[in-house]
Amino acid sequence: MFAKIDHGPLMDRVYRHQRHFYDATRKYYLLGRDPMIAGLMPPANGSILEIGCGTGRNLVMAGAAYPTTKLYGIDISNEMLTTARKKVTAAGLGERTELAYADAAKFDPSALFGRARFDRIFISYAVSMIPQWESVMREAVNHLAPGGQLHIVDFGDLKDLPGAAKAALYKWLEWYHVTPRNNLFAVAQDIAAATGAHAEAQRLYRGFAWISIISRPG
């Protein structure tokens, strides 16, 4: 029987039907995902965890890019996990991929996967949908191995987009319970400073997408 998590039922309602065509539509505006995956560059035989793995699309991409890595994913939507398991299996990655239902803000990877640390953790277009996103980032950094990195890609501040386009996009995102985190880079800097890590900021596509990287020392 699945555990009860408050945010989970909302995400199940949002994605119960969308999961079937999610990847086909999101490729047009979830920009920056592939550059983020290309920048992971985990060590050989390393480990990659995706927080909010959704349909499994990104894990499949990461698995193809880094064929010696072990892949892990958690999500708060059972609906999405159902699709992710099918996608991972279809890609031939089932033997080196583990997926679990969990709340990103308070998950225990040792209980879920039998390991406490990961070489790379990434979050793709999920911090804008997680109410306690700052806690999720801090929790993720706590689960990085020495020399590990947290990579986040999400909507940016849209600063350089035309005003009308920016307003329309914000309204559209609101319908889907999405809130761009315009202080993402500042929060990443604060977390890095508090943990002895280093934060890097990348702005893509006129501010449409941001990539934040927090690197722990080796």
Automatic annotation (TrEMBL):
Gene3D superfamilies: Vaccinia Virus protein VP39. Residues 48-148 form the Methyltransferase domain. One of its GO terms (molecular function) is methyltransferase activity. Pfam families: Methyltransf_25 (PF13649). GO terms for biological process: methylation. Keywords: Methyltransferase, Transferase. SUPFAM superfamilies: S-adenosyl-L-methionine-dependent methyltransferases. This is SAM-dependent methyltransferase. It comes from Phyllobacterium myrsinacearum.
